Amino acid sequence: MTHDSVAAAPVRVLIADDEAMVRAGVRSILETDAAIEVVAEAGDGREAVELARRHRPGVALLDIRMPVLDGLEAARQITVLVPETRVLVLTTFGDDAHVERALTSGAAGFLLKASDPRELITGVHAVADGAAYLSPRIAQRVIAHYRDGSRGDRAQAQLRIDLLSGRELDVLALLGTGLSNHQIARRLHLVEGTVKGHVSAILTKLDAHNRVQAAVLAHRAGLAPVADHR
User: Fold this and answer.
1) Phi, psi (degrees; rounded to nearest 5) at 191
2) Beta partners for 110?
3) Which of 116, 139, 35, 129 is nearest to 86 (CA)?
4) pLDDT band for position 1 (50/70/90)?
5) What is the per-residue pLDDT across 172-205, written as a single tens digit (0 to 9) for each?
């Protein structure tokens, strides 16, 4: 599979799942892409945190239900201890409660194990590039959940985004569709470093821990259009 980052260093990935056969399957899918390198595997959440600290991968691919420490708590610890590692949750459970917990734990993306294998590769590259990524099978439902929230929720979200400048609102709207800094820069005809500065300011002003939380707020405020994940 061809990817823009093939010429650059590959995306280094940690896989964490308590089933060895699942880890082997995920590894075999990822290794079909020359731009991805699996650097470690963990069988439980605590081991995932330890290996993330040791290897500092670009992406940690975590299952939710694991012994010793579940994937959501592991995600929270990794985002605090190894902030350069982006967490992508890969799980069987796609209900709203698990998605909500994953996003509030600092995960940058959420994929279902039943997804097309190509989606796994797309998701890994998306979060490695700084974008938020939700499985298309649940993205519309999650977005609808925030759009259909109470008027109070929407009003509160709109008050929060009022803190942003006009250009920051432009960036937030595109960030809400899951675009990376590079893609946003192209859309707005800006230098990528400028977009990175805007994103940093947005997260600070909105008191958001990561891009996904900012994207959720954009949807809750009615700012972001529905993403096209094709």
Assistant:
1) -75, 140
2) 89, 134
3) 129
4) very low
5) 988 877 677 888 899 999 998 899 899 889 988 9
Q: Cα 222 to the chain's mean position, in Å?
A: 20
How wide is the angle at C-alpha 215 spanned by C-alphas 211 and 221, nearest 5°? 145
Question: Are the C-beta atoms of 33 and 123 separated by less than 8 Å?
Answer: no
Q: Is 21 exposed, middle or buried (0-12, 13-18, 19+ CB in 10 A)?
A: exposed
Residue 44 · residue 21 · CB < 8 Å: no
Which residue has better confidence, 32 or 138? 32
Q: 113-139 burial, b if ≥16 CB within 10 A, otherwise e?
A: bebeeebbbbbbbbbbbbbbbbbbebb
Question: What residue has token string 């994937």?
Answer: 71
Distance, CA of 75 to CA of 105 (rounded, Å): 6
Q: What is the Cα–Cα distance from 109 to 60, expressed in whole angstroms?
A: 10
Which tokens go with 41?
């595997």
- pLDDT over 90 for what percent of the chain? 43
